[in-house]
Amino acid sequence: MNKKKLSYLFLVLAGVAIGWLVFSNLEFTFPAKDESKVAVSNHINMASAANTFQDKPIRTLKDFNEAFVQIAESATPSVVTIFTEKTVNRRFISPFDFFGSPFDDFFETPRRREEGANGRKEVLRGLGSGVVVSSDGYILTNNHVVDKADNIYIRTHDNKKVQAKVIGTDPKTDIAVIKVEVKNLKPIAIGDSDALRVGEWVIAIGSPLGENLARTVTQGIVSAKGRANVGLADYEDFIQTDAAINPGNSGGPLVNINGELVGINTAIASRTGGFQGIGFAVPSNMARQIMQSLIKTGKVTRGWLGVTIQDVDENIAKGLKLKKAEGVLVGTVVEKSPAEAGGLKTGDVIIEMNGKKVRDTIELRNTVARTSPGTVVKLTIWRDGTMKTLSVKLDQIPDQPVAAEQQQEMSDLLGFTAAPMSSELASRYRLQTDAGKVVVTDVDPAGNAYRAGLRNGDVVKAANRKDITSYKQFLSIVGKMKEGDLLFLLVKRGDSNVYFAFNL
C-alpha cells in the first residue's frame, strides 16, 4: 500500500509541475479591488462596475500605447457637448467682456447682437462639456456652464442633438445635473476620488475652443489634491492636474487609468487666459454626493457646526501647549448653534472628527458640510492641556434671508454679490463676525466693481455715504439704484478702510 500511495503522490506532483510549466508564461488580469465603490444609486441606472484597465499587463511600448487607447475609447462615448443660449439686455458691450479672469472658467460664450426696439437685446451662446452618469439620461456638468441659460442642448457621441433640462444646480461647488430624454446612453463608471494619489495618470475629455474639437482627449497626471482658497467656489477641494484643458472643457470628465470618472473639470489657473499646466477638477466623490441630493430632492442640504475656525501654526501650538501644530482652533461659537449645544468653547482645538485627524480649516469645513444635518459627530478636542471628546448634533445651515432671484438681480446690477455676515463667511475669509454686516462673496471679473478693485472678502461698511447697519438696509440702498448710477462704497479689508467708486 505504501508503494501505491507513493506512486499516486508522484503522479499528483508531476501533474502540478507540468501545469506550472504550461501556465508560467501566461499573465492574468484581475478585477479592481474597489469595484464596489462605484455603485451610486439603484434608482437612476448608473454604471456600477469599473473596467479593469488598471490591471492590464504592460510588456511593450505598444501595450502602453494600447492601454491609453482603450481607456479613451471606453470613456469618450459618455462625454457630451453642451450648448446654451440666454438673452440679456445691455446698453453696450464692454471691451473687457472679452477678457477672462486669472482663473479662466474656460466656458466659451460667443455673442450675437439682436437689435430690438431698444437696441439692447443680446443673445449669448455658450459651449461646454458634460458626462453621462446614467443610461436614462442624467448628465453631470458645471453650474457655470448652464447658469441662467434659457435653452440647453447636448450633442452625443453619435452626433445626436437633444434638448436638455436642468434637474438642479449647486453654485457652492459649481456642480449641476441636467437630463435628456434619450435611451441607451452609455454612462461612465464613477470612481473613488479619495483613492487618487499624486502622480497618477489621468485623462481629460471635453470640447475645447469649439464644437469642431468635441471629445478631445488629453493626458497628464494628478499634480496635487485638496486645493482650496482658489476663489472659484464656496466649497473647494480641487484635484489639480496638468492634463491640457481649455475654454469649452468645463464640465467634462477627468478619468483615471481604469476608465472611471474621478473629477469634473472646472477651471484653470493662468496668467495668459490659456492653458499653463494648472487645471482644477471637482472630485468625483463630492460631485456624486451633490448629484444624488439634487436628483432626489432638487437641492443640497449641508451640515452646520456654528463656529469660526483658524489653522493652528507653530506659535499657536506653543501658546496652547500642544505637542505639535495640528487641528483647528475655535474662535467664535455662535449662539444657539450645534457647537454651543454640544459644549464647544472659544479656544478649543478640534483634533479629530469621528476618529479622523483634522488637518486644516478647509478639510473640517468640507467634512461638516457634506455630513447630513441631524448627524451626531464625535469631536476630539484639546482644552486646557487635556483631551476631551464631545458629541455634537449637526444642524442645517441657516437659510439666507434673500431669495436667489433677488440676489441674482443684485449681482447683475452691481457686478458683485454680497451676503449677510455669518460664521461660515467669517471662517472662509478669516474675518471677525463683528467686522461688519455685509460681506462681498463674488465679484464679476469683467465688471466695473472688479476693475475698481473690489474683491471677495471685503466687508461693506458704508454705501453712498450711509453706514451699513444690516443686510436689509444694504439691499434697500442698492435697490434704488439703476444701470449707469455711481456706487460709492467704503469697505474694510484687513486692518484698512478703502473707498471704491464705480458706475453700475
From TrEMBL:
<keyword id="KW-0378">Hydrolase</keyword>
<keyword id="KW-0645">Protease</keyword>
<keyword id="KW-0720">Serine protease</keyword>
<dbReference type="InterPro" id="IPR036034">
    <property type="entry name" value="PDZ_sf"/>
</dbReference>
<dbReference type="InterPro" id="IPR011782">
    <property type="entry name" value="Pept_S1C_Do"/>
</dbReference>
<feature type="active site" description="Charge relay system">
    <location>
        <position position="174"/>
    </location>
</feature>
<dbReference type="InterPro" id="IPR001478">
    <property type="entry name" value="PDZ"/>
</dbReference>
<feature type="binding site">
    <location>
        <position position="174"/>
    </location>
    <ligand>
        <name>substrate</name>
    </ligand>
</feature>
<feature type="domain" description="PDZ">
    <location>
        <begin position="294"/>
        <end position="385"/>
    </location>
</feature>
<feature type="active site" description="Charge relay system">
    <location>
        <position position="250"/>
    </location>
</feature>
<dbReference type="Pfam" id="PF13180">
    <property type="entry name" value="PDZ_2"/>
</dbReference>
<protein>
    <submittedName>
        <fullName>Protease</fullName>
    </submittedName>
</protein>
<keyword id="KW-0677">Repeat</keyword>
<dbReference type="GO" id="GO:0004252">
    <property type="term" value="F:serine-type endopeptidase activity"/>
</dbReference>
<dbReference type="InterPro" id="IPR051201">
    <property type="entry name" value="Chloro_Bact_Ser_Proteases"/>
</dbReference>
<dbReference type="InterPro" id="IPR009003">
    <property type="entry name" value="Peptidase_S1_PA"/>
</dbReference>
<dbReference type="Pfam" id="PF13365">
    <property type="entry name" value="Trypsin_2"/>
</dbReference>
<dbReference type="GO" id="GO:0006508">
    <property type="term" value="P:proteolysis"/>
</dbReference>
<feature type="binding site">
    <location>
        <position position="144"/>
    </location>
    <ligand>
        <name>substrate</name>
    </ligand>
</feature>
<feature type="binding site">
    <location>
        <position position="85"/>
    </location>
    <ligand>
        <name>substrate</name>
    </ligand>
</feature>
<feature type="active site" description="Charge relay system">
    <location>
        <position position="144"/>
    </location>
</feature>
<keyword id="KW-0732">Signal</keyword>
<feature type="binding site">
    <location>
        <begin position="248"/>
        <end position="250"/>
    </location>
    <ligand>
        <name>substrate</name>
    </ligand>
</feature>
<feature type="domain" description="PDZ">
    <location>
        <begin position="401"/>
        <end position="495"/>
    </location>
</feature>
<dbReference type="InterPro" id="IPR001940">
    <property type="entry name" value="Peptidase_S1C"/>
</dbReference>
